[in-house]
Amino acid sequence: MEAYFDNSATTRVYDEVIDKMIYAMKEDYGNPSSLHQKGLDAEHLINEAVSSIKNVIKCLPEEIVFTSGGTESNNMAIIGTALAKRRNGKHIIVSSVEHASVSAVMQFLIREGYEVTYIPSGADGTASPSDFADAVRDDTILVSCMHINNEIGSIMPVTEIGKAVKAKNKNLYFHVDAIQSFGKIPVVPKQLGVDLLSVSGHKIHGPKGSGFLYIKKGTLVRPIIYGGGQQKNMRSGTENVPAIAGLGIAVEKTFENFEEKIAHITSLRDRLIEGMTAIEDVYCNLSGADKPSAPHIASISFTGVRSEVMLHALEDKGIYVSSGSACSSNKSKESAVLSAIGLDKSRIESTLRFSFGEQNTIEEVDYAIETVKELLPMLRHYVRG
Predict the structure, then answer these.
(1) Of these residues, 59, 145, 284, 327, which one is catalytic?
(2) Is 59 labeled as catalytic in the residue annotation?
(3) Contact 153/294 with Cβ under 8 angstroms?
């Protein structure tokens, strides 16, 4: 049996997405900026994708900018705001448990003369709205935080954070990284109170290299890519029509029978947590039963065995997981997220992330549990020996 439990890293693309992308490449292959029919046909595919997205997130068509994915969306939101509002101030607030596509941007801005305040996380992986509000100053131009943590699945109280910081400074912008939350929990920018929201296509069974940034009407963001002025001058360069068309289909399909799909994914997560934590010295780092958490992520520590060893042992059995964020799991650096929630070194070094999608099954979960029961005593014996 093969069991793919790394859906937070990337998902298997829907067949319908593949079909749409092939159609775009073979039939409507014109440049959407061209004035002839082939160009208009390509532009129509983009407009179809815009319509699919705006219907889900309840926004205006002009509030959507297509990008190459979550990293670019985060970069555009943060750097674009920093450039557009630098005359108002150079102070930015961010949580301490952000993805590298946010935390690395902050380090860049610090080198450029901006000041960044980091809000610490509690043991549950979330930060307090009051802590965010307390950090707001007159020269604060941007507050940024993720919606769902990609490593442990904690859900940030973004609505409350947005209200708290806006009450202190109504002129700042509020950016939310919704890359792990879009398609897993309701994400409607106006309800969340955000000005900027980042989404990635390959987390929702769309193509890699696709995504979008929601920019609330009236929000000033400086472009970070210049050229021909496509997408209303917000992101120059010929649009990746096949990827955009595929993203639109992925959004449509993700939200078909949405509640049923999420209930299924949640049941898989809960079954895995229950089965794994019944094994001696195996721990869940954020239990969905204790506090609302992502329906698709389970962070599990197998104490006594390094995460890389367990990962490859599971891989040999056809079970695919990760040892953290896919963008940093190939590095030896200790997880800042697991450190921030107070795990000791032994727990951090033995943690794996299981992340689920609608295509996973109960049989796959049970197979993973039974496989761990067989492997763990042997692996621990070798370590102790």
Answers:
(1) 327
(2) no
(3) yes
